[in-house]
Description:
The protein has about 220 residues and is mostly helical. Helix content is about 75%, strand content about 5%. The protein is built from ten helices and three strands. It has helices spanning about 5-20, 30-35, 40-50, 70-95, 100-115, 120-140, 140-150, 155-160, 165-185, 185-205, and strands at about 25, 55-60, 65. A three-stranded antiparallel sheet has the order 1-3-2. α4 packs antiparallel against α10 and α6 runs antiparallel to α7.
Amino acid sequence: MGGAQDGAARSLRAAISRGDLSPGHRLVEADLVETLGVSRGAVRLAIDALVSEGLVERIPNRGARVRVVSPDEAVAITEVRMPLEALLARKAAERVTDPEADRLTAHVETMTGAVASGDVLKYSELIQQLHGMVAEAARHPVAADLVGRLQAQLVRHQFRLSLRPGRPRVSLAELTELVDAITGRDPDRAEAAATAHFRSVIAALSEPTPDPGGPA
């Protein structure tokens, strides 16, 4: 993929990851040409790349749209993600630098503040940032790239989990344990903490729940 196509794909991927482009959102090539400042051909190739990653789907005679991930598929994606995150946690505990450890500790304090204030949107974003920080400390680009592709498909479901009463405090405790293990340079504990957290996520995703009516 060339520079223009690659840049367009990165921009679209980031917008999907942030939830700016919600599931089911129609991707109109003409609009994207104007928004991204690239050619129609570059937009088309960028969409093709995201189709191959499972982030976008083409509907016959209706163009492309951000793919809707069902709860069952969200569980399956998280099951695949779990061992990769466990690997990243182990490597992070082995390789984390002192400055990275300090940033992780400070980040958990920020997450704690978001939960205490009830800022669900901020907390959901902070969780994504935390996983990125762990991946950076792990220095394992293959696993990090795979996790990034899976993560982008789960943004909607993760935010909806954060809307559930009591769920943020549960995940905060799990992620605090993960960071404590990484900053304590304990690979076995870090791997176990990551696995425990994602098992908890899978269990929560598997529970039927009424639509909380919050942002999708």
